[in-house]
Amino acid sequence: MRVSENVSLRPYNTFGIDAIARYFASFHSREQLETLLLDPKWATMPRIILGGGSNILLTKDFDGIVLKNEIKGIRSVREDEHHVYVQAGAGENWHQFVQDCIAKGLGGLENLSLIPGNVGASPMQNIGAYGVEIKDTFEQLEAFHLQDREVHVFNKEACEFGYRESVFKHRYKEQFAILHVTYRLSKHPTFNTSYGAIEQELERMGVKELSIRAISQAVINIRSSKLPNPAEIGNAGSFFKNPEVTAETYESLQLAFPNIVAYPLPNGHFKLAAGWLIEQAGWKGYRDGDAGVHERQALVLVNYGRAEGEQIVELSWKIVDSVKEKFGVVLEGEVNIV
Question: If you compute the radius of gyration of the chain from its CA atoms, what whole number of angstroms results?
């Protein structure tokens, strides 16, 4: 394993922020990671475990070591009458993994097509889109504890999944490196097309017979039309979570803003569309230098070229203040700011 010095992280984060890591190394197995951590030179140094870099905003150079997770491999570990349990290395590209499962006729992840990032981030974030979340198909994960250097296995309950939340974002933040994730996928898929514009897109595509591949393509088409490609414009997808409010608060907002976009939740609360709130506050398409709000999706903050992380953070604060002033609702960030 080679440890490099003074490495630009621009190629390793989808925002395209040009921060410098004092040291940088990739690991392809638990053994390689453990070897790095046992070296006294790196053992006590600040560190970041980096996956696909799709949910991180770098605001400064990092005076420590960045460890890039490159653990690969996809395999079926067991199956029963209805399911196949598929394990993937945390360093696998998420979209490519989803497409691999679809090619094998295994359902459950098709609504999550084209989400940027790697497999290891999927349970950390409990990623979700178009009515599906990772917790719906998650079986277990293996994670390496960076201090006790032991592998721990987490089932669904241990991960404590919530809306874009898991135990790894708070209680165990920066304590584990996820090695492998196992998903419970269906041999006989049921189709989830009721959320968003999937049904309309399937109709536009002329789909006569539903399939997981058709749903995946519909999701790809929708996401491609609404969201900027990080390879072309730096971004981390949705910058803010959709806020949850009580029914009473929603009714009050609806009286003041009859066109407000919201979705009822099982607990009786409502989830507000953060993109709608931001757009109504006047931020859609806003640009200050190379930091801005995307012209087609107000939920996405972008780097048009040479923006610094601090500029994007400051823009996000202005948006939070503006939405709070107009609607009395506080937006919460989804992106990990470093």
Answer: 20
The three-state secondary structure class of 313 is: helix
Show the tokens assigned to 23. 């040291």
Residue whose entry in the numeric block shows the structure tokens 């989400």:
115
Among 133, 238, 244, 308, the active-site one is 238
pLDDT of residue 163: 84
Quote the pTM value.
Answer: 0.88
Residue 115 structure tokens:
């989400």
Mean pLDDT within 24-29:
96
Backbone angles phi, psi at 101, to 5 degrees: -65, -40
Q: Which residues is 8 bridged to in the sheet?
A: 20
Question: Could you confirm whether 252 is annotated as catalytic?
Answer: no
One DSSP character per residue, 59-121 reads: -S-EEEEEEEE----EEEEEE-SSEEEEEEETTSBHHHHHHHHHHTT-BSSGGGTT--SBTTH
Q: How many Å from the N-terminal Cα to the C-terminal Cα in the chain?
A: 25
CA triple 168-169-173, angle to 5 deg: 70
Told to judge if 150 belongs to the known catalytic residues of this protein, a careful annotator would answer: no
10 pLDDT band (50/70/90 cuts)?
very high
Q: Which of 54, 113, 142, 164 is catalytic?
A: 164
Strand pairing class (301-303; 291-293): antiparallel
26 is catalytic: no
